[in-house]
Design a protein that fits this description.
CATH topology: Helix Hairpins
Oligomer: single chain
Strand content: under 5%
Shape: globular
Helix content: over 70%
Largest sheet: none
């Protein structure tokens, strides 16, 4: 193979990866939920002035949950493709285990979030941020409403055969 062909394959791989992420956003409510929650966590970390190792750990947790949710989607779609409407015990087990992996990582990510945000310094900063301007409280409420709309209303597509 020529270098030109290898480079083309390399960049096509990124294209396919972005298509996979777009598929997850369009069709997976839980992926949208995790993505929106991750954005809110990053906003909270900015309010709290989180830096360095703590911010890195939050990013790893957000990325890990999103990656596992994408893998869970791949496992579910593969099992559905292979078994069709007929649910085998092993197919169900595979789907349940993939969902369980997301749950385990999400619980630990939430524990990390609690450790970062529910301490005296962070709670003081959050309180000062919101008491400093009623408009910020309205913005936070609006962000929560947008999160619900993003998760439950937008992109109500279901996977379709191409």
């Amino acid at each position: 193979m020529s270098i030109r062909t290898d480079i083309g394959k390399f960049f096509r791989g990124f294209k396919y990866a972005f298509e996979g992420l777009a598929f997850c956003i369009r069709t997976q409510r839980n992926f949208r939920s995790h993505l929106g929650t991750g954005a809110l966590v990053l906003w909270g970390s900015r309010i709290c002035g989180t830096e360095g190792t703590q911010k890195l750990i939050l990013l790893v947790c957000i990325g890990g949950v999103l990656a596992l949710e994408a893998v869970n989607t791949a496992v579910e779609n593969t099992v559905d493709l292979i078994s069709g409407e007929e649910r085998t015990k092993l197919g169900k087990a595979a789907k349940d285990c993939a969902a369980g992996a997301v749950l385990v990582f999400s619980v630990f990510a939430a524990a990390v979030g609690c450790a970062v945000f529910f301490n005296g310094r962070s709670l003081e900063r959050i309180g000062a941020y919101f008491t400093g301007s009623p408009l910020r409280i309205a913005a936070a409420a609006g962000a929560c409403v947008l999160q619900l709309v993003w998760v439950f209303v937008c992109f109500r597509d279901k996977p379709q055969d191409k």
